[in-house]
Each structure stands twice: as C-alpha cells, then as structure tokens.
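To: structure subgroup
Subject: Chain for Friday's discussion

All,

I'm putting the inputs and outputs inline so they're searchable in the archive.
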Amino acid sequence: GRALGEDYEVRAAATAEEGLAAVEADPEAVDLVLLDIRMPGRDGFWLLDRLREGFPNLPVVMVTAYGDTETAIEAMKRGAYDYLVKPFDVAHVRALIEAARKQRALTRSAVSLEPDAPSPGDRIIGNSPAMVEVYKRIGQIAATTLPCLITGETGTGKELVARALVQYGPRAEKPFLVVDCAAIPKDLLESELFGYEEGAFTGARKGGKLGKFELAHGGTLFLDEIAEIPLALQSKLLRVLQDGTFQRVGGTEEIRADVRVIAATCADLEARVAAGAFRADLFYRINVGRIHLPPLRERRGDIPALVRYFVQKHGAAVGRPVTGVSEDLLRALQARPWPGNVRELENEIRRLLASTRGEVLAAEIPPACPGEDAACGELRSLAARALEEGGEGAFHRFVARAEASLIAEALERTGGNVSAAARLLGITRLTLRKKAEEYGIRVPDPDA
C-alpha cells in the first residue's frame, strides 16, 4: 500500500464487506480493486462475484500467497482482470494498474449514452461481455508500440479500435495515418506506402513524393484490409516491420522510419496463409498483438445503446428533436441479422431519422431478405464495402473480391489440387490459374 500510495490514491478495507461498501459509496472514484483472496470472514471470491454483478466494468485483480493453478483458473473464470501471487514486483503492479485504468477509461466512455449527452465524435459503444473483453485487450496492448492485428467482419468498428489503441498509448500526440489497402489500385499501393523519387515512373510528380511510412514517422500507420496487399509488396512491408528501413519507388537511399503498424482485416488470414495468398512471416509479424471484434449478431444486447448513440449523433440532421426510441422498434432492430454490423445499423438509424415525423423514433424497418443467412449476410457486407469506397467501379471491385475469396476457399478445401478445385468451381484449370494469378493467389506449379 505504501509503495503504491506515492502515485495513487489508495483506499484500504480489512474485510470483503468493507470493500464492497467502499465501492458502493463512490463507484466512479474507483479505477481498480486489488483483492486478496484470503481475508477474515468472507473470502475474495465472494467479493469478486458481488463486484462483477454490480460493477461489471470495474477491473478486479486477485492477489494471493497461494499460487496454484485451480485458484488462478477460478479467479479468471469468475471475471478477474488479472491474478497476482505474493510476493510481487511493484513495477509489475504499477504497469498492471495503468493497463487496467486505460480499460476503465474506455468502458466509461463507451457507456456514456444518455440521449442528451454531448457527442464528441465516433466512439466504441457497448457493454456486453464480448466488448468488455475488447476493452481489456485494448488496455493491455495500448501501452506498447508493437504491431497489432485487428480482425472482424466488415462494419464492426476496426478503425475505432485502432484509434483507441493510439489514444491510450504513448503515441497519442503523434501522427496517425490510415491507408485503405482495398481502395487503392494494386499498382499504386507501393508508392502510396513508401513514396517515390522523381522520374520513378510515367506521371511521377516532380521532386517525388513522400509515402505514408515517412509521413507517419514517430506515430502510427493503420493498414486497413491488409489482406489486399499483393504478395510482391508484402516482402517490402515485412522488411520495414523488421528493421524500420525501406527505399522509395525508383530510389536507392535507405530510409528509416519509426512507425507503429496496426493492421486490420475482415479476411481469414490463416486461410490466406495456407492458400499461399499471404506471407506466413508477415502474418506472424503483425499478429503480435491481436484483437478480435465480434459481429453485431453476437452482441445484440448492445443494440439499444448503439441506437441511442446514433440517434444522438445524427439527430440534429433531421432539424427537429428526437427524444426517444420506441420499444417495438428496438425489439425489431435486435431481431435483425445485421450482416453489415454496426455500420449497417448506423445507416439504418440515419434512414429512420430521415423518415420519422415525431419526436419518438418509431418508423418500421423493412423485413430481412427472405431466407437471409450467414452467406447472404457476407455477400451484402462485401457489396456494402464496395459501394462505400466511392468512385466508379464498385461492380468490378465486388466481383473481384468475391472471385478471389471463392478461388482461395476452393483451393483450401481441395488441399491445393488445381484440378479438383476447378471441378468444384465448374471452371477449367486454365481459367482458375489465370484468375489465381490475377488475384495474387499462389497455386502449385504443374511442372514441380
């Protein structure tokens, strides 16, 4: 207590009942509970259960002098943030406290959902167990500068998580740049990331151009949809992740950049690696810290909070106050499959706001498409992403991504057997090879 009291306000309680009373008296003043398992009277597990029930977002670290596997597993199973065995290193405890405080700050932000509360901008919303796990991972990873991989379906909020990692990390005041690898033509992606020298190619700007790695020096680069980076470019990305150096397109000078890379994808990278469409060594490099975002259908309990937040965020655009949401509408929204996840829900609320006539949002939403299932949802998500990227060519972007996914899946299911994959797809081997080459998917050499 004395060692921590120099940097934190520490409140002590001798029994579980005293500890519970202290938290209940002023829960917002408590960032973290260090809880001994063995105490006079009721033990720490009793208090852990009470705290998890009444204050699910409050991090609780269990402390014991008896470091056995069963106790550790029981503590984590009951929802403890972490588990410490005495005697412990004070520096380690301080680091743990800071990580837990960051998680606490995230959850406080996320549940600030009063309809009349000011909206400072996009935030991560949700208090479901799945999202609490996401907040915990953010708190654990944010303090580092190691690469991080964020996975999840389209529309789950991967960029918001990336921004949270920066906001609560040591590079919060440094540059944060976003590159959507799926929206940039493959032949331009290298120059976008690494820049180019004057005269590097036809149409190159006089004096050259700095790439995103140079512009993000000292800060963070967010590579959205990293699975779309061509194989030929992945080796250059791997090198800059390994030693921080690269060359501009058309240049020979070694350039050094101190950049933290956060990557995101809606693809199954492990499957891409198995199919030869993504380098295994690059995957291992970016997968150091990993955060998976659950689809909205797996956290339906967060939908009412998300709806209130989006009404608050977009309500001013309708030119009249919207003070509530009908229970019938909330139930209908919670019953939808939401293949486009949170992004689709937000767009639906904007549509409802535009059509509502009263102060209570109560418009009917169209029924789900007949027989809608996971496959239908995935296709709609792919279509939504192609349209949201803007510009021309949405049809071709959608078809190319669908074809690439289908070919990669067929090759994976047939163990890389081109003939079997072609039969499965109903196309010729030549067509499959041409398409695989077009999309950067590795197939076995017939002469090997």
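Points worth raising on Friday:
Residues 144-292 form a domain with the Rossmann fold fold (CATH 3.40.50.300).
The chain is about 45% helix and 10% strand.

D.
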